[in-house]
Amino acid sequence: MQDAASPAPIESALLNEATGNTIRHGYFTRAGGVSEGIYRGLNVGLGSSDERGNVMENRRRVAAWFGLPLERLATVHQVHSPDVVTIGADYDGARPEADAMVSATPGVVLGVLAADCGPILFADPDNRVIGAAHAGWKGALTGVLENTVAAMEALGAQRGNILACLGPSISQASYEVGPEFVERFVAENPDYQRFFAPSATPGHAMFDLPALTIERLRQAGVRAESLGLCTYPDSERFFSYRRTTHRKEPDYGRQISAISIREI
Q1: CA angle 229, 233, 239 (to 5 degrees)
Q2: Which fold has domain 13-171+208-261?
Q3: What whole-number distance in Å separates Cα of residue 36 and Cα of residue 14?
Q4: Which of 33, 36, 200, 235 lies at a CB distance of 3.0 to 4.6 Å from 41, suitable for a disulfide?
Q5: Phi, psi dihedrals of residue 78, rounded to the nearest 5°
Q6: Neighbours of 244 (CB within 10 A)
Q7: How far apart are CA 123 and CA 175, in angstroms?
Q8: Could you give the CA distance from residue 111 to residue 76 in angstroms, rounded to a whole number?
Q9: CB distance 43 to 58 below 8 Å
Q10: What are the tens digits of pLDDT across the range 125-146?
């Protein structure tokens, strides 16, 4: 394995402003990993065909950025669902099928993977409850964001105290969809037509997944922001499923966004 510099994740001004030293978070890029070739950098995707040793070393580096061992990095088997799991002190490394996690336990890192879908990190700094969600179009439409907020409340969070930030994800300028896609959203809510703009391809549209994500977070009663970073054009910093597909590459890596409550 070729060594590289330590990871240097992007941080949210909103989360930093309110959480201070009680909660730490980071939206990790490709920087600081050991993977090579099409997976170059910090690929943490166990579902990729990258060498497993590289993936595990990259994951170890993410955990180490939080000052914790690899065994305390919690991730799930993401399936584009609205399902949320609670991570406690008894976390044993299991990866159940789900797309979000919540915790009130210090010393564990919640991490969600993405390569165009939206990674959202949540925090209620007053009550020391955190969450992390993976929201592609399906998860956003079927309620993974709202379910994450509800699961945080079950751990003692107060909805009005919850902050949420959407990390690097595909933007409207790079997300072309077909007419059946638009119909599915408009059938759910006619107002969702506003998240689609005309495409250069007849009958197609450009979908604004980040805008939908932020809208649903705010409607859920939390204070939300977006980093405003698109994964598709920025191949130096981000993996992108859609870019990989357009380039006809055989596989792609995944970046991670993670959050943890500091131990006192």
Answers
A1: 80
A2: CNF1/YfiH-like putative cysteine hydrolases (3.60.140)
A3: 34
A4: 33
A5: -75, 130
A6: 18
A7: 29
A8: 8
A9: yes
A10: 999 999 999 999 999 999 999 9
β-strand pairing of 163-166 with 255-261? unpaired
Residue closest to 79 by CA, chosen among 126, 127, 142: 142
3-state SS, residue 149:
helix
Contact 103, 121 (CB under 8 A): no
Instruction: Decide: 8 and 32 in contact? Cβ < 8 Å.
Output: yes
pLDDT in tens, 205-223: 999 999 999 999 999 999 9
Consecutive H or E run containing 242:
helix 241-247
The token duo for 102 is 């919540």
What pLDDT was estimated at residue 1?
40
- The maximal CA–CA distance of the chain, rounded, in angstroms, is 57
DSSP run (H or E) holding 99 = none
β-pair type (223-226, 163-166): parallel
Q: What is the mean pLDDT of each run of 10 residues along the chain (264 residues)?
A: 72 88 95 98 98 98 97 98 97 96 98 98 96 98 98 98 98 98 97 97 97 98 98 98 97 98 88
